[in-house]
């Protein structure tokens, strides 16, 4: 019985000794793949997905990239280099892009300059405008869906919810509620003119 080493193995050893590590030892026919080199920042389509290279790493591009960037919190505050491990620091970073200590120093400086009340009232007004917009959208959606007379419970029972207030009465009650909230804002900020 004769033990023999195949020609492919001998050629592979020759390639390794001579430093040709990637040289082929056999010839194959069939499927050929073409690879293209991409560099930092390139965007391309592959297998139904969009891809890019960020910091030397191949990554997919998704719809949630903006949300991911918004939710990303650094390990240290970009202004004062304090560790951002506490929830208060994370909350302040999401809102003001720095830690609680930086926000406290900022508000203290505003108090010293006499501009704190103006800044606080501006923040309250911005928050109120966002809240008001959301309330109006939710109320419009409620008015659209309230005319479906029957509701299906979790148990599968059908309940009839027809009747109650008319749309005009609900709109009037909603307007009264919004006006009361505007008056509360005016009391908090000390303004007398109505905001709409």
Secondary structure topology:
Blueprint: H1 7-18, E1 43-46, E2 49-54, E3 57-60, H2 65-71, H3 87-96, H4 100-113, H5 116-145, E4 150-152, E5 158-160, H6 167-189
Antiparallel strand pairs: 1-2, 2-3, 4-5
Helix pairs in contact: 5-6
Provide structural commentary.
By secondary structure, this protein is mainly alpha-helical. Among the domains are: 67-114, no CATH class; 115-151 and 160-189. 49% of the residues lie in helices and 10% in strands. The protein has six helices and five strands; from the N terminus they run H-E-E-E-H-H-H-H-E-E-H. The strands form two sheets. It has a three-stranded antiparallel sheet, with no helix packed on it. A hairpin with a 5-residue loop joins strand 4 and strand 5 (158-160). Helix 5 (116-145) packs antiparallel against helix 6 (167-189). The radius of gyration is 33 Å and the shape is elongated.
């Amino acid at each position: 019985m004769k033990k023999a080493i195949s020609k492919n193995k001998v050629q592979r050893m020759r390639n390794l000794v001579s430093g040709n590590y990637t040289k082929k030892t056999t010839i194959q026919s069939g499927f050929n793949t073409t690879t293209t080199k991409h560099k930092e920042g390139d965007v391309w389509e592959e297998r139904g997905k969009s891809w890019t290279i960020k910091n030397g790493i191949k990554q997919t591009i998704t719809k949630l990239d903006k949300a991911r960037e918004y939710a990303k919190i650094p390990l240290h505050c970009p202004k004062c280099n304090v560790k951002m491990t506490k929830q208060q620091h994370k909350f302040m970073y999401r809102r003001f892009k720095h830690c609680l200590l930086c926000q406290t120093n900022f508000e203290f400086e505003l108090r010293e300059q006499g501009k704190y009340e103006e800044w606080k009232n501006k923040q309250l007004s911005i928050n109120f405008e966002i809240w008001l917009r959301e309330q109006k959208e939710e109320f419009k959606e409620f008015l659209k869906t309230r005319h479906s007379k029957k509701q299906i419970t979790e148990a599968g029972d059908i309940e009839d919810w027809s009747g109650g207030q008319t749309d005009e009465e609900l709109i009037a009650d909603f307007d009264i509620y919004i006006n009361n909230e505007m008056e509360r804002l005016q009391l908090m900020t000390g303004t007398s003119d109505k905001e709409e």
